[in-house]
Specification:
The protein is α/β, with parallel strands linked by helices and about 400 residues long. It is built from seven helices and 18 strands. It starts with a helix and ends with a helix.
Length: about 400
């Protein structure tokens, strides 16, 4: 397993060092198979079907064309018995020092950050970046945040917040540029009716920006060790100074590693009203804990995903994931929904599970993409339209 992870990380480090801004970066290597990394930071698996045990060292990027159309006619089927998933380890979340507003002092700026320390502008007028100061591993780090203002911004209106979380190895610029080209930016998703926020994950020991998904007792040596829940909380606190931003209406969309982050934010904080996780389920040991706070949860997951297994279990990244459909059921139970969901199978074999009659109207929605791999972690306009249409019911 360590050898597999090392091979993947070496290939990703080569990609990170290229500094390419193209849609797909292809890294040839004589010792490993060709790897492609999406600008959003999500790595994906080979298009060739595995015949026996999946080879975790082999990854490739299929075209970003959606693999299914959720709007197509569905064939109703009876709800199936929910899988029990892999037995849960007795882990508890790791909590690191909290983040604070950026002080006027010199900070250690990692190489994934800007060379100048920037604070919040006095007024919201146009898209900008600023930094949050956070102590990580004994050092004060200036962590970047991009705030995207709608092109037709009205200072007399109040806007909800929509966070977008990149995948492993992703950067603000990559995700922002990718979204602008494909109409999947925060402004496009919410049709100009939100303030977009793209935070930057902290560098992992392998020099890859990431979100901390680890649980206590598991040292995966892959991801950042920052307290990202505190980081996001600090961002929201800073944005509360603007009267045009409604910090009680916060939503999050995450891709791959970023999807794991929104699952954790929903489970371990009361910051978000709704989240959408693209290609990551709940992690054992980081299930929802705050019974008083309900969150609308959407999950989109490929049934042939080799990075984050649809059926749960140990991933190639070292985390133990809950079965995708069981993950949806856990959220439904947490939200006090009717636990007899509507289940539909499309003509393509995609499985839609929807839990309704939930507390505070916060339903749980899941699509299992029949032929989807980890490419489901790419921003997909069709699925994002579904996401915002459900988020809008909470506004």
């Amino acid at each position: 397993m360590r050898a597999y992870i090392l091979i993947i990380l070496i290939s990703m480090l080569v990609v990170a060092g290229c500094g390419s801004t193209s849609d797909e970066t292809i890294v040839p290597n004589q010792d490993i198979k060709i790897v492609e990394v999406d600008p959003s930071g999500s790595s994906v698996q080979p298009t060739k079907e595995p015949t026996n045990t999946p080879d975790p060292t082999s990854t490739s990027t299929p075209t970003p064309t959606p693999t299914s159309n959720p709007s197509k006619t569905h064939i109703p089927v009876q709800p199936t018995k929910e899988p029990t998933g892999t037995p849960k380890p007795t882990f508890t979340p790791t909590r690191m020092p909290t983040a604070t507003a950026l002080p006027d002092e010199e900070l250690d700026i990692p190489n994934d950050s800007i060379s100048e320390i920037k604070s919040l502008p006095d007024e919201l007028t146009e898209t900008f970046e600023f930094q949050i100061a956070q102590e990580i591993s004994g050092k004060k780090i200036g962590r970047r945040v991009r705030i995207e203002i709608p092109s037709d911004f009205d200072p007399g209106k109040t806007y909800p917040i929509l966070f977008l979380f990149h995948g492993m190895g992703g950067r603000i610029e990559g995700l922002s540029n990718y979204n602008q080209k494909r109409g999947t930016s925060a402004e496009s998703i919410c049709r100009g009716n939100c303030i977009g926020v793209i935070p930057q994950g902290h560098l992992s020991p392998w020099n890859l920006p990431s979100w901390n998904l680890a649980v206590e007792g598991v040292n995966d040596g892959l991801e950042s060790n920052a307290d990202d829940v505190a980081f996001v909380e600090a961002i929201i606190k800073e944005l509360s100074k603007y009267p045009q931003i409604n910090t009680s209406k916060v939503f999050g969309i995450g891709y791959s590693n970023g999807a794991g982050m929104v699952q954790i934010l929903a489970a371990e904080s009361d910051l978000f009203q709704g989240v959408a996780a693209f290609a990551t389920n709940l992690i054992h040991g980081r299930e929802p804990k705050n019974k008083e706070h309900k969150v609308m949860v959407l999950q989109f997951h490929g049934m042939r995903d080799l990075v984050i297994p649809y059926n749960g279990g140990l991933s190639i990244q070292g985390h133990v994931f809950v079965d995708a459909e069981e993950s949806a059921r856990i959220w439904a139970e947490h939200n006090e929904c009717d636990l007899k969901p509507s289940v539909n199978i499309s003509l393509e074999g995609d499985k839609t599970i929807e839990y309704s009659n939930c507390g505070e109207g916060k339903k749980v929605f899941h699509i299992g993409v029949k032929n989807g791999r980890h490419d489901v972690a790419r921003p997909n306009k069709e699925y994002l339209d579904i996401t915002w249409s459900l988020f809008e019911t909470l506004l």
